[in-house]
């Protein structure tokens, strides 16, 4: 199971053969084959070019033409020592980006949660502009995502136990498609799963590992509209959508005289004078 999930092409091929939504993909065996793959993946452009293993969008790039794909793969081979056969070309998924984490015991789904990535850490320095690490994430209720993930995990291990982290993106029809599955590890966004909802996922995992009984009536613990924001210089912050305007009040004065003042209330409040753009 671990070897299967490490190889994204093998995993996606297995899922598609069993009727589970995943992007149509072809392995790159040599650079001469790239043009043929573009023809096989006829339809919209770009295509998604990436390394078959690894995390953090390793070697990933949207490519519009065969020459772009060949140049990108050639660069990684010459500069990073990554062989041509380590790459895969897939249909591009333009829709929403989901993360789904679940805990299983002896083939039974115990707890599952979902979130959507809204922006990414290091986005400006990533050629692909995407990453598995979200700078801003939001909890969501997505029954289709849960169903797809549960079916996939049961397929790869009918007696699944432990934690599974699944990444999905919507295709052009809005159908969430699995792009990879992480086995035996919590995702980098695990804080939003542990601190939001009725059940702490890490605690549930530990209790099951120690042989304790866990009583969870509804395995899908959905608590929509909680956000997690994080950057490189601070701890993650979690807040609900209802808190967006807490402790903020603005007052516009002095427009006629060409000057105004912005007043904020709450911690660190005070008056700031600014020049009006009017007049």
Give the uncertain stretches in residue-range form.
260-279
Query: Roughly how many Å apart are the termini?
Result: 68 Å
- CATH class call of the largest domain: Alpha Beta
The shape, in one word, is globular
The number of strands is 13
What is the overall number of helices? 7
Strand content: 25-35%
Structural class: alpha+beta
- Residue-averaged pLDDT, rounded? 87
Q: How would you characterize the largest beta sheet?
A: 7 strands, antiparallel
- Report helical residue fraction: 10-25%
If you compute it from the alpha carbons, what radius of gyration comes out, rounded to the nearest whole angstrom? Answer: 23 Å
The main sheet orders its strands as 9-8-5-6-7-10-11
Set down the secondary structure blueprint.
Blueprint (H helix, E strand, L loop, with lengths): L1 H5 L1 H10 L7 E3 L6 H7 L6 E5 L9 E3 L2 H15 L6 E5 L5 E9 L2 E13 L13 E6 L3 H14 L5 E9 L5 E8 L6 H5 L6 H9 L16 E4 L7 E4 L18 E6 L5 E6 L4
Antiparallel strand pairs: 1-4, 2-3, 2-4, 5-6, 5-8, 6-7, 7-10, 8-9, 10-11, 12-13
The gist of it:
This protein has 279 residues and is α+β, with helices and mostly antiparallel strands.
Written account of the structure:
By secondary structure, the chain is α+β, with helices and mostly antiparallel strands. The chain folds into two domains: 24-91, Dna Ligase, domain 1, CATH 3.30.1490.20; 97-243, ATP-grasp fold, B domain (D-amino Acid Aminotransferase, Chain A, domain 1), CATH 3.30.470. Helix content is 23%, strand content 29%. It is built from seven helices and 13 strands. The N and C termini lie far apart (68 Å). Mean pLDDT is 87; it is low at 260-279.
């Amino acid at each position: 199971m671990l070897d299967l999930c490490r190889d994204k092409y093998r995993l996606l091929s297995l899922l598609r053969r069993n009727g589970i939504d995943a992007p149509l993909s072809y392995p790159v065996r040599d650079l001469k084959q790239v043009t043929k793959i573009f023809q096989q993946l006829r339809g919209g452009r770009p295509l998604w070019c990436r390394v078959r293993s690894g995390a953090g969008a390793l070697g990933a790039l949207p490519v519009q033409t065969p020459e772009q794909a060949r140049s990108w793969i050639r660069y990684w081979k010459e500069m990073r020592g990554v062989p041509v056969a380590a790459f895969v070309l897939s249909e591009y998924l333009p829709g929403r980006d989901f993360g789904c984490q679940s805990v299983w015991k002896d083939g039974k789904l115990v707890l599952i949660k979902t979130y959507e990535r809204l922006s990414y850490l290091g986005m400006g320095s990533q050629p692909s502009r995407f990453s598995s690490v979200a700078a801003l994430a939001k909890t969501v209720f997505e029954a289709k995502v849960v169903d797809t993930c549960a079916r996939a995990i049961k397929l790869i291990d009918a007696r699944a136990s432990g934690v599974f982290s699944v990444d999905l993106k919507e295709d052009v029809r809005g159908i969430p498609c699995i792009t990879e599955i992480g086995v035996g590890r919590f995702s980098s966004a695990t804080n939003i799963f542990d601190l939001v909802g009725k059940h702490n996922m890490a605690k549930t995992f530990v209790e099951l590992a120690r042989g304790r009984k866990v009583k969870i009536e509804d395995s899908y613990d959905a608590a929509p509209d909680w956000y997690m924001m994080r950057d490189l210089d601070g701890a993650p912050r979690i807040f609900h959508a209802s808190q967006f305007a807490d402790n903020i009040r603005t007052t516009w004065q002095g427009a006629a005289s060409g000057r105004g003042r912005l007043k904020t209330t709450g911690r660190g409040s005070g008056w700031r004078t600014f020049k009006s753009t009017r007049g």
